[in-house]
Amino acid sequence: NAGVTQTPKFQVLKTGQSMTLQCAQDMNHNSMYWYRQDPGMGLRLIYYSASEGTTDKGEVPNGYNVSRLNKREFSLRLESAAPSQTSVYFCASSEAWSGGPFWGNEQFFGPGTRLTVL
Amino acid sequence: AQSVTQPDIHITVSEGASLELRCNYSYGATPYLFWYVQSPGQGLQLLLKYFSGDTLVQGIKGFEAEFKRSQSSFNLRKPSVHWSDAAEYFCAVGNQAGTALIFGKGTTLSVSS
Asked: Both ends of chain A: CA-CA distance in Å?
């Protein structure tokens, strides 16, 4: 089991460039998430996907789009990168919690993508 | 709005000493609370969680946390810290909509020899 994998690990972009961050999980989880982590800010949710075929905005969705390609994969796209999007991006997944909110189960995190926008 | 506050940005503890990391939350109903740890260059790992029942929760790596409703707190403790515990620790609460976790800003733990 690889768990949650993310590609790339590092990326440098110029302002205005686009890119897609890839995330895949092999735990057969229903729910997947994208967070960004900035110094002194903790983790903030960008988008989440409660189940295959659904996506919803989190706390900081502006400037991002997501695609839940299938149950395994959840990608994050920056259409026109800005310096404010310089951050470490984490993907996570969790199993649905029977009888309650789906975040009730442990979220498993990937190793992160460190993105710099110049 | 729900929120999580971790008052200590950085704590240094001697190896073998006890540890307490503070977490306060703002939430109207019974909260669902979590502690995660992030080692340098790694993703987050769940240490423990509280949903209901016994207010003292045991987790992995010898950590425990106590839920105190009257103080809106969920402090993390360990009786004897090891050098390998040096990491960043995040407290989180499940949001009211049941859709996501709200994280605190984290506390960095350094362990001195």
From this structure: 36
CA distance B95 to chain A (A): 9
pLDDT tens digits, residue range B22-43? 999 997 677 889 999 999 888 8
Q: Which residues pair with B14 in a beta bridge?
A: B112
Name the average pLDDT for chain A.
90
Whether A111 sits inside 8 A of B43 (CB atoms) is: yes
- Summarize the confidence of residues A76-93 as an average pLDDT: 96
SS3 of residue A2 by DSSP: coil
Q: How far apart are CA B62 and CA A59, in angstroms?
A: 33
Interface contact B46-A107, CB threshold 8 A: yes
User: Residue A80: which residues within 8 A CB-CB, separation 6 or more?
Assistant: A16, A17, A18, A63
